[in-house]
Amino acid sequence: MKIALSKDGYDVLSEVNPANLIFSSEYGTLKYETKGSIVLTLSAGDFGESIAFNHNLGYIPFVEVYMENPVGDYEYCPVNGSGAVVLWSSTFRITTTQVIFSVESTGFGSDTDFTFLFFIFKNDTGLI
Amino acid sequence: MKIALSKIGKSALTATDPNDFIFSSDYNTFKIIVEGDIPDTIPSFGGKTIQVAHGLPFIPLVTAFAFEDGYTSIFPPNSPHVIGTMARLGYLTTELVFNYISADEDYIYFNFTNTSVSDKDVIVHFYCLEAI
Q: Complex ipTM, two decimals?
């Protein structure tokens, strides 16, 4: 049995273009496991730091990450940013047990917090 | 007709915040329309754009992750493969960079550069989620 819902103006019984369906059981969806945030503090004068979140799923999941930059805006990660006298970038990597967030900068004059907002999905990337 | 499933503790009949629903036919969903693995090799001191036909009747929204052979993590596009950081140096990378994803009516493109002395075997795991 198939379950499908079409967008307004399309016939669910005959529509074959998935872009015109709101939902179809013929296609998987992203199912999210955890939403959370973690704060990485880059010490004054340092150029790089990492911090890990343990997901312990046992496989490498699909993950989406945003980073709150030093001026308070959330940006889609990986991020490259700059201020008047500093540069920074952030990225992440995913293992079977952790999501590891990293920041690199030209060195702030004071301790600086970078907040990562993450969504870990149940979906297994199947890699590794 | 509307179909909706609310989260536990919320009423599917009265909830109005889309975040209170597991699913609601009032909102489109990201469907995993195409998902696949593309293995390839990025040459030493060079770059490569991996091209794959998507076979869809529209330009898809694509996201992906890259796996570099010999490592235990995967990494996103628009990023070097960072395997650690050092306080006084910054990123420690494998010298492989997943530069970007792009797509057109026929193909998806995954661009890498490799500044190391060795060729690098990669697998790109990609998802086509929606029409652009």
A: 0.92
Q: Which residues contact A112 (CB under 8 A, 6 or more apart)?
A: A41, A42, A44, A70, A105
pLDDT in tens, A13-46: 999 899 999 999 999 999 989 999 999 999 999 9
A19 backbone φψ class: left, alpha, beta (φ>0; ψ -120 to 50): alpha
Q: Is B20 helix (H, G, I), strand (E, B) or coil?
A: helix
pLDDT digit string, tens, across residues A49-95: 999 999 999 999 999 999 997 778 899 999 998 888 889 999 999 99
Q: Which residues of B touch A102 (CB under 8 A)?
A: 82, 84-85, 91
Does residue B64 share a domain with residue B23? no
Burial A108-121 (b: 16+ CB within 10 A, else e): beeebebebebbbb
Provide the CATH number for the domain around residue B41. 2.60.40
Cβ contact A48–B87 (<8 Å): yes
pTM to 2 decimal places = 0.93
Say which of B65, B85, B129 has its CB closest to residue A49.
Answer: B85
In CATH, A31-124 is 1.25.40: no
Q: Nearest Cβ partner of A47 from B25, B80, B87? A: B87
